[in-house]
Amino acid sequence: MTVFQKPLDVSAISQGLGVRAFKATNIEEFEDSLRQALEAQEPCVIDALVDLEEIPRSLQRRVDTLSAFFGKQKVLVHDA
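RESULT FIELD:
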């Protein structure tokens, strides 16, 4: 992932270089772009715009699992 001060149109750059490109701003567009790229059977670029504040589903499951696990742990306090 790269963040630029000015938006970079990766799909336009790719098309300018002769590579088939897609732009995806949501999961449905990404799934459609991926399907088309796989069907093309040639090099393709998918310019996926993401929300930097959103936690990916796979990572959220890990966070939930760890929170549940560590939330159930008893804290042992040792007297000095």
